[in-house]
Design brief:
globular, single chain, 4 helices, alpha+beta
């Protein structure tokens, strides 16, 4: 395969991790912000009212010790310096979040093999969904009928 095709596949796979976590949280009824620039490290998922943040880390880029990570064999010095700097930056951002009174959780790429366990762990971290009802599809017939009824109109 061409380099372009391999990179496209890699980028698609890389972007699916945070999407899976967001889908799990949305299905549970949570509402959140993405990549909030006001916080150090721009966490992937942020709950400003609760002062909670979730990072979704790739095992290779953030050097998780799960066994799936393998050091690149070419240009070893470059990759060692880059990945070590990633870990140092993560620690610095986490200390700063803690100093600001925020709590955070890290979801690792390898943990996403078991979405049910990740979902359970995040729900335990986030606590109950408060004051929000699960919103159905706004284009569904039930949603249109309820909106029409609240405005005094016939569906």
């Amino acid at each position: 395969a061409s380099l372009h095709a391999r990179l496209a596949c890699f980028i698609f796979r890389f972007l699916r991790r945070p999407q899976l976590v967001r889908r799990l949280l949305t299905l549970k009824g949570y509402r959140y912000r993405l990549h909030w620039k006001r916080l150090p490290g721009k966490p992937d998922i942020v709950f400003p009212g609760r002062k909670l943040a979730v990072f979704v880390h790739g095992c290779m880029w953030h050097q998780h010790d799960c066994g799936r990570y393998k050091q690149p064999k070419s240009n070893v010095e470059f990759w060692r310096a880059k990945l070590t700097a990633n870990v140092a930056r993560d620690r610095r951002n986490q200390r700063e979040l803690h100093r600001l009174g925020w709590r955070y959780r890290i979801v690792w790429e390898c943990q996403l093999r078991n979405p049910a366990a990740v979902s359970k762990r995040l729900v335990a971290f986030l606590g109950p969904v408060v004051g929000l009802q699960r919103v159905s599809n706004p284009r569904s017939a039930d949603a249109r009928n309820s909106r029409a009824a609240t405005r005094g109109l016939r569906p």
